Amino acid sequence: LRVLDVPAALGARSYAGSRAVTVRVEDPLLPRNTATYAIPGDGAETTTAPADLEADITALGAALLGGSRWSDLALAGLVRVHDAAALRAADELFAVPQAPHSGIYF
Questions:
Q1: Strand pairing category for 21-26 and 53-56
Q2: Which of 1, 23, 61, 104 has the fewest CB atoms lying closer than 10 Å?
Q3: Within 28-80, where are the H helices?
Q4: Parts of the chain with a pLDDT under 70
């Protein structure tokens, strides 16, 4: 998943947790996406607060649909963690009751 409008995508998504997390997203292709976002559980907005987690746009795309956990992305070296508690909170926020699935094969 390639996110073209990070504020819109994060703002439109529903979240499962209640603890706020700040995520710094880097997007070299679309610089307007590069920002730090506060995700409190009921939407998202840009912030100047320090980031709990840092990820590039591809890691955000992997986590956005709920099929990849932030902690798994961190283990793979795709997310830099500044606060371990925030990593657990991000896993909770982005959790989904059923993993995403596509029945179409290319």
A1: parallel
A2: 104
A3: 57-64, 70-75
A4: 101-102, 105-106
